[in-house]
Amino acid sequence: MADDLPMLYDRVGEDFFGELVAAFYEGIATDELLAPLYPDFPDFEPAKERLRLFLIQYWGGPTTYMETRGHPRLRMRHMPFRVGEAERDRWLVHMAAAIERTCEGRADGPEVAAELLNYFVPAAEHLRNDDQLGLVQ
Ligand code: HEM
Question: How far apart are CA 90 and CA 111, in angstroms?
């Protein structure tokens, strides 16, 4: 992130994250691999709100996520279900599509999209847990 720019949250505002997450879960809802992993499937509203609050906090907005859910510890929270290459890739396909839709028409769209993807791509890889079989490490 460039040092001279305010935090992403201050540039895009809260509604942006609501729109991003809504577009993302529209994709997830159609995904036969990922959709059934969500605990309230086929209701994505609770998961939508958790992701929305997490992203707002991560990009410098209010810390409501922490106040309601505690420390994110995302790797631990993803342990109950398999995150392999296929899951990572599907997740990123839906997020990239959501970013494209949400950033479309914004003057700062390309910078915002790049900033989001610069976080999501390595973060999704970091959440992989298909090496936890005792074979590696
Ligand atoms: C950059 C990548 C990712 C981020 C930032 C992210 C973020 C989150 C967050 C914030 C939650 C809610 C945690 C909580 O408060 O309980 C969550 C839950 C979840 N994530 Fe991810 N996630 C990512 C990648 C993935 C991938 C690759 C999968 C594929 C399997 C996945 C599947 C799920 C599922 C099934 C839940 C449970 C729904 C829920 O309880 O909210 N996530 N994720």
Answer: 23
